[in-house]
């Protein structure tokens, strides 16, 4: 069921650092051709920081760990399934093409021995009273992988998301931040569990957690300051985007991609530029963390 690229297979066999990358950013997160460009740049940033990239997706009834250029391009074509844990087996059985979310990516990564994943922002608890919870959260609660991200997506209920993480025992480490980042924005009022100054500093914490717990850990990195969308400005953009979606009666699974598209247009590209910048940065940070994890010595090292 798993097809592992030779480069990734060799790195894992030799205890070299590997970083898993999700593929929904290609199929559903960014417009073409920027989606493929950013996917390539993330892989290049992982390599430049000393690790091996392993973008994960589903093709022809198998989980592919490490993709070819042709597969990256194929993920940008229409009709690619968005794969989470509820439909992963269905897409595999149908032999369709599927782009993995955070939840599906860490499930796959853990099963082939990859400890670190990079993404933009995790899913979380949606706004409103219906308690719509992303499958990313329960996946994190039961999958021992370190996820490097810029917090949860700003369109979510961040307070409820942070509470969910605490309740289910998922530690949140902040790199150069005391607060849980809000994807497009650097600052919130929600604290992280511990602050470190570099991803290398986070490695000892991550190493202990992955040894003693069967759950994930978040390493949060704020969006680079020069590309931040301040909270007040973002809230204005979000209100306008929500009004547009309500007028178009967009609901369910279509909400998030439609909302991100509307935000990019209403903000005149500011949210898109922030998204691209944090994806590149998080890939580098995840690679630095993965490298540091392979260099750990002592009783907590793998």
TrEMBL record:
Pfam families: Indigoidine_A. Its cofactor is Mn(2+). Binds 1 Mn(2+) ion per subunit. Keywords: Glycosidase, Hydrolase, Lyase, Manganese, Metal-binding. It catalyses: D-ribose 5-phosphate + uracil = psi-UMP + H2O. Substrate binds at residues 82, 102, 134-136. One of its GO terms (molecular function) is metal ion binding. Its EC number is 4.2.1.70. The active site is at residues 22, 153. Mn(2+) binds at residue 132. One of its GO terms (cellular component) is cytoplasm. InterPro entries: Indigdn_synthA-like, PsuG. One of its GO terms (biological process) is nucleobase catabolic process. Belongs to the pseudouridine-5'-phosphate glycosidase family. Catalyzes the reversible cleavage of pseudouridine 5'-phosphate (PsiMP) to ribose 5-phosphate and uracil. Functions biologically in the cleavage direction, as part of a pseudouridine degradation pathway. Homotrimer. This is Pseudouridine-5'-phosphate glycosidase. It comes from Ardenticatena maritima.
């Amino acid at each position: 069921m798993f097809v592992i690229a030779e480069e990734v297979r060799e790195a894992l066999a030799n205890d070299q650092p590997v970083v898993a990358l999700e593929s929904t950013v290609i199929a559903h997160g960014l417009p073409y051709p920027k989606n493929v460009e950013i996917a390539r740049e993330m892989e290049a940033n992982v390599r430049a920081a000393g690790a091996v990239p392993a973008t994960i997706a589903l093709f022809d009834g198998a989980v592919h760990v490490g993709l070819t250029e042709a597969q990256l391009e194929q993920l940008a074509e229409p009709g690619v399934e968005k794969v989470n844990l509820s439909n992963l087996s269905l897409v595999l059985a149908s032999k369709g093409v599927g782009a993995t979310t955070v939840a599906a990516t860490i499930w796959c990564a853990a099963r082939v021995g990859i400890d670190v994943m990079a993404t933009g922002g995790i899913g979380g608890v949606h706004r409103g009273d219906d308690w719509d919870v992303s499958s990313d959260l329960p996946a994190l609660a039961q999958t021992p992988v370190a996820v490097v991200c810029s917090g949860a997506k700003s369109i979510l209920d961040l307070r409820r998301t942070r509470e969910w993480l605490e309740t289910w025992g998922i530690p949140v480490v902040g790199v150069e931040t005391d607060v849980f980042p809000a994807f497009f924005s650097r600052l919130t009022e929600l604290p992280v569990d511990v602050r470190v100054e570099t991803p290398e500093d986070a490695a000892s914490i991550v190493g202990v957690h992955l040894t003693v717990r069967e759950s994930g850990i978040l390493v949060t990195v704020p969006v680079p300051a020069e590309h931040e969308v301040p909270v007040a400005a973002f809230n204005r953009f979000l209100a306008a985007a929500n009004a547009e979606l309500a007028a178009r009666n967009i609901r369910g699974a279509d909400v998030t991609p439609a909302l991100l598209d509307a935000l990019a247009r209403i903000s005149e590209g500011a949210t898109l530029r922030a998204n691209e910048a944090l994806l590149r940065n998080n890939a580098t940070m995840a690679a630095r963390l993965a490298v540091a994890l392979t260099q750990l010595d002592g009783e907590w090292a793998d």
